[in-house]
Design goal:
Layout lengths: L11 H23 L5 E8 L3 H14 E7 L3 E10 L8 E9 L9 E6 L2 H9 L10 E3 L8 E3 L6 E6 L3 H8 L5
Parallel strand pairs: 1-4, 5-8
Antiparallel strand pairs: 1-5, 2-3, 3-4, 6-7, 7-8
């Protein structure tokens, strides 16, 4: 039995399949929990589950991204953005930043996507949630300084987050662009 839906990812084609899946599944969960489709922040993360997979995908990410433009040395700007077309009611989106997460024995998910919500709506939603405790499949993310709301469903193997600004705006405002 295969424990993880895509891992180990061993090719660029498999990476793109995982990205497409994470896109669709995160949108599905966003609609279920929030009641509407929100725009993406422009970043997508793929979670690895094996050390060799992480090494392979990190090397591939280096080929696909500009490592001088990043957020927190984690999300790197893609040389060519990844566009996912609308399908079965799920909106189209363009991803400009890619994150490859190290293996974590407590996270079996495929990946994550950040969605942008109006700051006032985000604040109201965040105030209705207890930090770290899931209420109606959403919680304030444990790193409160990041001002994120995490969505979760035990039957869906992705983790969407709700933020208040795009990744490009986050990078510009934090001036985290470095070499």
């Amino acid at each position: 039995m295969k424990l993880y839906r895509f891992s180990p990812i061993e090719s660029e084609e498999q990476l793109l399949q995982a990205i497409t899946y994470a896109h669709k599944a995160c949108y599905e969960l966003c609609l279920q929990v929030i009641g509407e489709y929100l725009p993406v922040a422009g970043n997508i993360g793929i979670f690895t589950h094996y050390e060799e997979e992480f090494q392979f995908l990190t090397a591939l990410r280096r080929k696909l991204t500009d490592e001088t433009v990043h957020y927190n040395h984690k999300y790197f700007k893609l040389l060519t953005p990844i566009r996912i077309n609308a399908e079965d009611g799920v909106p189209a989106a363009t991803y400009e930043y890619l994150y490859i997460r190290k293996p974590d024995p407590y996270r079996s998910q495929v990946g994550d996507v950040d969605f942008v919500m109006d700051p006032k709506k985000h604040q109201a939603l965040a105030q209705s949630r207890v930090t770290g405790e899931f209420t109606k499949r959403a919680r304030r993310f444990e790193r409160v300084e990041e001002n994120m709301i995490e969505l979760w469903d035990p039957d869906i193997d992705v983790i969407p987050y709700i933020v208040t600004r795009s990744m490009s705006d986050t990078i510009a405002s934090n001036k985290v662009v470095s070499t």
